[in-house]
Amino acid sequence: MSQPSLGMGLLVVLALAGAAQAASIKPWLCPPKQFDSVAGFDLAKFISAPWYVQKQTVLKYQPASSLFCVRAKYLPIDAKNLTKGVRVCNYANTGAVNKAPVGTCLAQAGVAAPAGKGPSFEMVALPWPVRRSNPDTAASKLLVGPTFQLAGKTPDDLAKPPAPGQPRAAGPYWVVAVGPSKTPALGYDWAIITGGAPSQATENDACLPSLKNDDGFWLFSRVPVAPKAQLDAMLAAATALRLDTAALVPVTQAGCTYAGAA
Ligand SMILES: *[C@@H]1O[C@H](CO)[C@@H](O)[C@H](O)[C@H]1NC(C)=O
């Protein structure tokens, strides 16, 4: 065999290897068959204290430039009846720690609303309709959207896929793993949140929610900077759920004062 044809053979082998690489996304893996949110969930405990995001996917409404001091606090609309929903108070700094707060529930703290959103831009989370879930896991699923978009709609309307071409009024928020807390009132020391079942296969043979739809994936801790063992536990739990942790980027929390957060 002459040198040139050996070279050609090698090129063909490389081209085939490349094709195999490109074809290595396995859509049938996602969402994983048994994937669901957690059973026996206690929303009252979950919302009893703020959550600090340790790592998350980059989203349109949470770009990389705003991944400083990311914090979520949920305020019941009616503390005696959580089925009325909870106000979603998201907080972050833009550009650097303790700079330019953005999020929801900022107006009451005297912080200007993000440009273009108006002072009344608020978010709410409503309970997921039990009839659209395994009843054991319905409590750990929420529907989150801007308050004005949810007005007059039932959770059942909101959980239905939108008509073609219609934007969704609310997005799925599922608590898919939790770490129990030694403090009974807190219930949980960490939590993994996904925007519904992760339907997108990745090149790592793992799954992600539809980032195109702004359905994210977050690692939450009760403390601003999670101890390494806790972060490792979250990453292991996410991997066990076949979530692609390679898509997560770290959120800076050290030195944050959360000025203006709810
Ligand atoms: C709680 O709120 C829901 C939704 O508004 C309502 O349907 C239900 O009757 C309320 N339950 C109680 C005990 O007030």
Structural class by sheet pairing and helices: alpha+beta
What ligand species are in this complex?
Answer: 2-acetamido-2-deoxy-beta-D-glucopyranose
Shape designation: globular
**In order across it, which strands form the biggest sheet?**
1-2-3-5-6-7-8-11
Q: Could you give the distance between the termini?
A: 75 Å
How many individual helices? 5
**CATH fold title:** Lipocalin
What's the CATH H-level homologous superfamily?
Calycin beta-barrel core domain
Task: Count structural domains.
Answer: 1
Order of helices and strands: HHEEEEEEHHEEEEEHE
Rg from Cα: 21 Å
**What fraction, in percent, of the residue positions are helical?**
10-25%
- The level 1 CATH classification is Mainly Beta
Average residue-wise pLDDT: 89
Note the main sheet: 8 strands, antiparallel, barrel
Task: Classify the beta-strand content into a percent band.
Answer: 15-25%
Please give a structural write-up.
There is one protein chain. 18% of the residues lie in helices and 25% in strands. The model has no long low-confidence stretch (mean pLDDT 89). The protein has one domain: Calycin beta-barrel core domain (Lipocalin), CATH 2.40.128. It has helices spanning 3-22, 43-46, 147-150, 155-159, 228-240, and strands at 51-56, 68-76, 86-93, 101-103, 123-127, 141-146, 171-180, 188-194, 200-201, 207-208, 217-221, 249-250. The chain has an 8-stranded antiparallel beta barrel with strand order 1-2-3-5-6-7-8-11. By secondary structure, it is an alpha+beta fold. The protein is built from 5 helices and 12 strands. It is globular and about 45 Å long. The structure holds 2-acetamido-2-deoxy-beta-D-glucopyranose (NAG). 2-acetamido-2-deoxy-beta-D-glucopyranose binds next to loops.
